[in-house]
Write a structure and sequence with these properties.
Strand content: under 5%
Distance between the termini: 22 Å
Largest sheet: none
Order of helices and strands: HHHHHHHHHHHH
Shape: globular
Radius of gyration: 19 Å
Number of helices: 12
Number of strands: 0
Low-confidence stretches: 311-323
Helix content: over 70%
Mean pLDDT: 75
């Protein structure tokens, strides 16, 4: 399914892309957590995911399975900053999963709208509506309350997750300012993003000392069949997530993608309490997550009302990716 941005998508494609993005995004959190619990070199995992994506699209184009165009230097230069911030966001998010349980990780990532709203004001986009501002503040308050009740609190892990929020905000701002998706199909956007990521990620795994130890450990781990299955699943789901994220953004409104993100977060938070471990249930922790989720739902409702009130206005990509 390769949709050009200028095409009018059918309702079935819109629904399928939204549902696919929600499922892929939710699954990816748990799969990455499972991989990181056994293999701590998160940036090497990200590099493998992007390499697999690049190779798949490249050979798919050569074999005629996709109409994606080759690399254009002007487009690559335009998308390079977006790719850098995108991968910085994912790299810090992966690293944070080493010390942060999934419900708290999702709660921290819901601080992104607050950061985006602040960035919007700083960049002259104007003040948000009262309901949007209050819902975002409620989401942030829930995150703080949940953190106070998180007995497995890991300061370094929290710092990595918050840094990921910053990079995600910068990524979204750059997407809006550069119009990165104009004229490109979902496959082409994914190809540029993964291809441009490889030099940046290769530099990082060398500078941080992950390579070559990460490679030798990976080869040793791959002899263990359960880990090999999870790793392959991680590589496949990395491709699926990137594709569905860009596809959902292209064929749906930003409002739809935002609601999908919130619903995904609710499901992931609930499952996070019973899967993979690492969560000590406490009244304060649960209360904070409930407040955080309520803020996310209110935020989506506020954006829905805003959309209904101004149907002619295209919503910004700043709300397009709730991860």
């Amino acid at each position: 399914m390769e949709v050009q941005p200028e095409m009018e998508p059918s309702s079935s494609i819109s629904l399928i892309s939204a549902v696919s993005y929600g499922i892929a995004s939710m699954a990816m959190v748990f799969i990455n957590k499972a991989v990181i619990m056994q293999y701590p070199h998160s940036m090497t995992v990200l590099t493998l995911q992007q390499l697999a994506t690049s190779l798949l699209i490249h050979f798919g184009r050569r074999m005629g399975y996709t109409r994606a165009k080759g690399i254009d230097l002007a487009t690559a230069k335009k998308l390079l900053p977006v790719s850098i911030f995108y991968n910085a966001n994912v790299a810090f998010a992966l690293a944070s999963l080493k010390g942060v349980n999934i419900p708290m990780y999702i709660a921290i990532k819901r601080l992104t709208p607050l950061a985006v709203l602040i960035a919007g004001v700083l960049f002259g986009k104007g003040k948000p509506t009262t309901q949007v501002a209050l819902s975002v503040l409620l989401t942030a308050a829930g995150c703080v309350i949940a953190a106070l009740g998180d007995f497995s609190f890991d300061l370094f892990g929290y710092g990595l997750a918050l840094t990921s929020v910053f990079f995600q905000t910068m990524y979204l701002v750059l997407v809006e300012k550069s119009g990165a998706e104009d004229g490109l199909s979902s496959i082409e956007i994914m190809f540029y993003n993964s291809f441009l990521s490889l030099p940046f990620l290769s530099f990082l795994i060398i500078v941080t000392g992950e390579f070559p130890n990460s490679l030798s450990l990976l080869l040793a781990k791959c002899s263990y069949l359960p880990f090999l299955v999870i790793l392959i699943l991680s590589l496949v789901m990395g491709i699926v997530l990137n594709f569905t994220m860009f596809l959902c953004t292209i064929v749906n409104s930003a409002l739809t993608t935002t609601i999908v993100g919130v619903l995904k977060g609710v499901g992931s938070t609930t499952l996070g309490f019973v899967l993979l471990g690492g969560v000590e249930v406490h009244a304060l922790n649960v209360s904070g997550l409930v407040v955080n989720t309520a803020g996310g739902v209110w935020y989506s409702y506020a954006k829905y009302r805003q959309k209904k009130a101004k149907p002619a206005k295209l919503m910004s990509d700043l709300e397009a990716h709730k991860k």
